[in-house]
Amino acid sequence: MFARASEDGFIHDMVLYYGKTTLEAHDVPLKPEQEGLGATSQIVSVLASTMSFPTTTAIFADSFFTSLELVRYLQDHNCRYTGTARDNRIGKPQLGTIKEMEKKAVPRGTCYYVTSDDGILAVRWKDNKTVILLSTDMGEGPMSTVLKYCSESKKREPVGCPAVTRSYKANLGGIDKSHQVLPMKSNRRYLRLFAYVIDVSLTNAWVVYKRDCKALGVKCQPLKDFKL
């Protein structure tokens, strides 16, 4: 199940995977320009097409979805994007290679970046491993520091961190928040799907309830106190 969620865990749209005909059942048919995209890029483009305000929204996704073609497609439709990426899906930007970045002589926190003529930022940042990001939403600066555990000194030490990485870590996770309160588990596929639809409805209602409580300035009743 592929889903699009807001940062507070509210799920707005879903696509159920079932092979080559995955996108045929979605309410929004593929446009000719989408048909030329890869499979994961098509999924993101379809989920993005149902957003109410795409020009004022930024999408965050992991390396399973991110590619240069997807970032360009969304950019052409005035939608901002940030995501981690695999090295073979970012084109050939003028950056240091992963092999060079992972040499011991290159300190942790090192950041190389380049921006294309059409405004796409590509970043390589050295953490425990080399992290690659593509973005049309954030720049590399201002650089800041984050505390990371160092295996050599056995303590947390400050490590340089680009702004785009901090933004990615802060905004990715809406799906995870939703799944934290999805209770039912089953080995039977049809039961899982049935339970998921019900649980998503309940979880979305809970998120809306919390939003309303925050807007009204009242205390939320704990989720465990609700009886069905």
UniProtKB/TrEMBL annotation:
Residues 7-206 form the PiggyBac transposable element-derived protein domain. InterPro entries: PGBD (IPR029526), PiggyBac_TE-derived (IPR052638). It holds the Pfam family DDE_Tnp_1_7. It comes from the Eukaryota. One of its GO terms (molecular function) is sequence-specific DNA binding. This is (Atlantic silverside) hypothetical protein. It comes from Menidia menidia (Atlantic silverside).
